[in-house]
């Protein structure tokens, strides 16, 4: 059965049962007998199959008219020509006449039921597909759903009535309305003509509502009531005047910039000026509901207008950005003005409540900011104890082409209801230009609407004609209330146009001639709406002109004062300043690493907790019990491996009140089954234990959460989370180091250059498993060369990238003593060789510098060749910033030694290109430094195990046999 057939069957089941119950009284209750339809539904016996019931009831009625429901009493009277009941009882028709009358009555009843069901199907069709014929395009030339086809089950012309078995004569018949519609208001029956009229008002006007895919009856009914109830889209004169004033500010701001800087790019909002009052309406409604912090992300179109009229940044600070001679007052490139962020706390005039508004800085990767906003929102909710998102919320703005085309949008939606990532509902506002740069949407997306990706999380989608400001405002009010009531995402699709090209210098008519001919004739929305309000008497022409003059004066005064600004203060544009992070001079506090050692008892306590199950009667897997016992043995011997060392680091921070959050794919157990920070009860579903949260009575919380199978979205989320608090440890772990490939946009645009561009500080830490294990090119390398290339080598900033081990997690030599962690110890940027050769430094023939796993290969090879007295192996634990001072000390110790840099990565990868000029700076060309490692290659590793082993053997031999050295002087 097709979809329409299934829908019809479902409606027939519901409506037939309803008619039985309403009209049949005690005689016509739904039968327990049922027929199986092809839909698989169990439906009561249909009226056409119920002649025996009707005959039984008819015979009973003949004996006693009160034995049936009054509706059936009336019905049977009509069969007998409306004769009085007494006459009907005394003058019973013959058996033949009874049969004919009953047959006729059954046919009539069947027709009545079929017509009612048809009307119910018609109502449902409008609810499902009405948006396809809504008048959404302000230009009147395009179809918002890219399809001019009108669904055959929508009554757009009289002849369409035949689809439902109805005709023109039925238009004035009244029909019972189902409980799944609110178009009747207080009325339960309406003429068909009025039913169609009200459905068109609700679903086919300037608002198109997509919601019937939502699998929650309560939510669907809520939306129906908001859009179907008669007269819902009504505003007071005061509300209309406020809307007009906001539209004036939005429009005149763009006009002012166009007049003053006619040859500058500004990515103006012309064609969607309604965005400003839309955002302000959302914020007002949310503020009234208790929200006091709103975090926003958006692309560059309209950003300056949002900064000016929503965030309320000082206009002179915006205008001075157009001065080409402006100098930077502090660190930061300044970036272009339509990428910068802002943070502002002010009074909301509509609610008289304090509200904090934050607009995140965003690169030209338009949707990259989406997960960052969500992460920062989650962090603020977390630190404020806002568990239901009643105080902090997010608003994301999008362009139509990017919303449909960029995968991070889906990744962000996919996080929206995950327990450790949900922000309890985001309001998405799509500025639907109906074009992407020069690309027609018909060749830019496969979905009918750019917003279809939101359907994956059952988010309602409200399409609205952006040239109808009141329709936009109503949709915004509903969206804000939806988020407050259901704590779920919602999408507003502002179907608009772009009055100019991609930017003000671009000529769009080359590729969109018909669209832009219409746009040049298109009347501005402000002019249309002001004319409407003047005609209604809501505002006078004089008041309208005075409001324009008032805002123009504000802009002129700000423009004049902006000329006095000779220096750009980037810090004015911070989207979330870190409290107490900066000194009184505005400079960052020193990030030099202080002593990090711990008291022995603290180490022992953390170790005992790490190797136990804090909860009673909690059954863990036998294999895990063995792992915990092995961990306990390490603690007893005052030894630790990587997993236990991680436990020590996290646990000690929690003791000091520092929140730790670890996120990524399978981080709870660990990809290599080494971590086990979340224990699972083996007999009780969903019962878990996090020992780290049982360390201290007043400790900070530890959050460890498996993420969705996403890198771009999740890393962006954690980066946003880390923005909210400088005194927290936020870590993202890649399942394998090379998985950061798909999150490279976040690394390039936010992590490596965020401070240089926007003074955007962040403490995110990346844990990237790295090492050549002979497993092939896919998961061998975390690409350290990329991160080193992006480093600014500032010695006052500690690294954020940690190349974590794989095979070393269980390597018997990869151990440390508690002595390395006790009081007075600190992070060692360089680990010197304390072996036999260190006793006679003058006899040392060779110094091998290395980093990472290759150290254990080198020590094994040195021992094999009995060269412990001749060769020193030194580990660089911190590559960037490069430890010039410590390298110099080691070189001075061994004046007669030859120098080697050894790495297991290929020569064109790894650390070679970074360390080469830095070693040369240290030795000052006094002696050569040899390179030892794999030859250059395109892939990061071989996929052949024997080749891998041969490569390793070859460069190990080279490292210890300079007489047959095949390396090169670096």
TrEMBL record:
Broad EC category: oxidoreductase
GO MF annotation, one: metal ion binding
InterPro entries the UniProt entry points to: 2-oxogl_dehyd_N, 2oxoglutarate_DH_E1, DH_E1, KGD_C_sf, ODO-1/KGD_C, THDP-binding, Transketolase-like_Pyr-bd
Principal location class: mitochondrion
Domain of life (superkingdom): Eukaryota
The keyword Metal-binding appears for this protein: yes
CC terms in the record's Gene Ontology section: mitochondrion; nucleus; oxoglutarate dehydrogenase complex
GO biological process: glycolytic process; tricarboxylic acid cycle
All residue ranges annotated as the Transketolase-like pyrimidine-binding domain in the record: 640-811
Listed cofactors: thiamine diphosphate; Mg(2+)
Keywords: Calcium, Glycolysis, Isopeptide bond, Magnesium, Metal-binding, Mitochondrion, Nucleus, Oxidoreductase, Thiamine pyrophosphate, Transit peptide, Ubl conjugation
One Pfam match: 2-oxogl_dehyd_N
Cited SUPFAM superfamilies: Thiamin diphosphate-binding fold (THDP-binding) (SSF52518)
Location relative to the cell: Mitochondrion; Nucleus
Family: Belongs to the alpha-ketoglutarate dehydrogenase family.
Protein name: 2-oxoglutarate dehydrogenase complex component E1
Organism: Gouania willdenowi
